[in-house]
Predict the 3D structure of the following.
Amino acid sequence: MRIDLHTHSTASDGTDSPAEVVRGAAEAGLAVVALTDHDTTAGWAEAAAALPSGVALVRGMEMSCTGRGEDGRPVAVHLLAYLFDPTNDAFARERERLRAERTSRLRAMAEKMAADGLPIDPAAVMAAAGPAVGRPHLARALVDAGVVGSVDEAFADLLRTGGRYYVHKNDTPLPDAVRMVAQAGGVSVLAHPRASSRGRLMDMDQIGELVADGLGGVEIAHHDHGAADQRILRGIAADLDLIVTGSSDYHGRNKSVVLGEFVTDPGQYDRIVASASGAGVVTG
């Protein structure tokens, strides 16, 4: 039973539609796939309607948060939220606020590039983006314009955090996000918390503090985690009795990973399902 609990579609910054993601999951031999677009549930209905026989869909989301860095300063952290009630009022309002932050930040970055003479049309970038816009949309525009050779190159230079064109956005404080997911009946899992290639890391001591807020688990098997990172996280998860997941973080053509490249143990998946009260798994 192969289970991939972290994928993205055109509802945020992936290149496959939600329907293509679930069909691709079946082709990859997955029994369970989670759709976890950034700060939106917009792809859920399409994914559920297109779900192939024999594949189960976990409806989820990846939430933009601010945690405590190893140096004590704020740091960007992502939180996976599974099987929550999308009608929960407080959580729905926060998702709407986050999407507004994404929109204003991306427009500002595109306008800064255009003002510097880069061949970027801010209006076209915004029009081509999905319900939850993000830097990968601008990265694709830079690739298409011939400014950079790849999405990775764009993030390493023009789109890097703290770089010339970077614009800050106000993400949800991590403890608040964990509590919101729990109050909506969902299960929260920290996404790739030791992905050092993305920049500064969160303080690992904060993971223990988040348990009291309702944190459910930690994503460990991930292409941005080396063997040493995985050992550290497995030790923390064991000490705190947290759910352990593995996932591809699939983005279609925007990343080189494939569906099912990393997977979650069925017993750990069962813990997620048993802990959730907000929404059920959709079966094909």
